[in-house]
Specification:
404 residues, Aminopeptidase, 12-stranded mixed β-sheet, 13 helices
Length: 404
Amino acid sequence: MALTPAAGTGKIAGSMTMLPSAIAVPDCRPLAVPASQALRAFAAEGDSRAEQHAFCFGRSYDSYLVTEAGWEHFWSSGRRGMIAVARQGRHLFCGGGLLAPAEHQEELLRQFVVHALDQGRTMTFLNICEGQLPLFRDCGFQATKWGEEAIVDLPDCDWSGKSYAWVRRQTNFCRRQGLEWFECHRDEHSATQWSRLAAELTQVSEAFLAGKPQSQEMRLLQAPFDPRRLGRKRLFAARRRPSGRIEGFLACNPCDNGRTWVMETCRQRPDAVRGTIPFLMHQAMSQLQAEGVRHVSLCLLPGLRCREPLPGDSAMVRWGLALGTGPLDPAYAVAGAHHFKSRFRPRFENRYLCVLPRATFGSAVAFIRLVGALRFDPRKLIGLAWTRWRKRAARATLLTPEET
């Protein structure tokens, strides 16, 4: 088996240190396909097979993110299953889960573990769902809850009654302000029209990011916005009449063979009409609902209800999450995101961080470096913290985890 680079990645060199031999992987079958064979197959097929696996077999919000540049792909024998990998030194960070048919997931994981241990690597899987957790524990992974994914079940959602009153108010206000929504289809625009639309959407994205405390987007955990490379993503935008100015947009990623869509990128202008993003989310969910889509994911809420220790989990990871959702909340805005997403009445599913052999300070540092989690603009961060402090009375009304 081999790790094969996705488009846009380069070679990563580094020394390898073997892990302790006490780590055992029970009942592993021999690796049947030579590495050179897997590499040749990947080169011939390009990214299409990886994208197909992410679309069909992804079960978490980050599944389709593995089609972006920066990931490498591990294929099991027979190329039935795939694991997306990003390297930092001797640490392998895996996103998107086990992208394989359910009956092949155990074998995929075992083959990958053998491959990684043979090369002296440590493994960290992000966003593992409850159903796959026993597979990881059977292979000796340390599992720590690291957040909850907010999921809206569309068949149960009728947008009426007190529960959805806030959502309806945002939509009605935006309509009175002249907002209309539309889906951006490349084939409905000429090359010139699409180029103009893409440029305006990029401008909206850049203006939105300019107000964030991060000096750049976090790598791998979110997709950079690129209207030229959408794949199967769906793009919704809000335009204001009569000027025609784009106020904001929403990019959705598919998973679970199209039965679930992930509202992954939501951005608006700093001076956009109040309520532009919930207006877009409401309209997009209504459209998906009419098409028979089952679920919409509102992505991960890191650190949500993670203070309670689990048997064998990592106290260090729990402490880090408490830091990110406590003193560092002005940087990551987890409390505000939880309050906002709760307006759409989602249910919450646990997501786990699974590490073999176990989470260490070194693996934590490698992850922070890889994704750029601490790359802040100091002036923006201080200004945002000051603004939050001045508005502390209003923020005291935010919903708490116990209220959802």
